[in-house]
Amino acid sequence: MCDDCFSHGLKARIYRTWAGLITQIHAGYVAEFVFGKGNVLMSEQLDHQGADIRVEYKGHFLNYQVKKTSYSGVMSRKPLPRKNKLKGKSVDIKYEVPTCLSDPKTKKGEFRLPYLRFLEDKRTKSFENGFVIFTPYAFAGDKKAIDNL
Questions:
Q1: Domain count, the chain
Q2: Other beta carbons within 10 Å of 90
């Protein structure tokens, strides 16, 4: 690989990694908004145990793992089973970043399928620059389920 190709590829990978990390941190703040201050934990140790965000609410534990959904058609490997090292329910909170946010219509004027999927998902929204964030709706159903027990 040429030096120029490597540096551009590395820069792109770093941007993708930072975007994912910031999205994950933001999700933690949204969870705290929904479940209340002091009920949400995020740490490197929890991450090693399989939870990006851990919620303890009314004696119930929810261990969220934030995952970006990809429809690129590339499957690197079969996902490994999660090691349940933490007490509580494991919850995958998936989100999609459609590449067509800036150009949502086809040449025929129809909306692209990834864009329509994104619009239907109440758990996320995007800024004008295409950065995706979570809404309180992403966690509200879990909170409501616990409240109704």
A1: 1
A2: 15
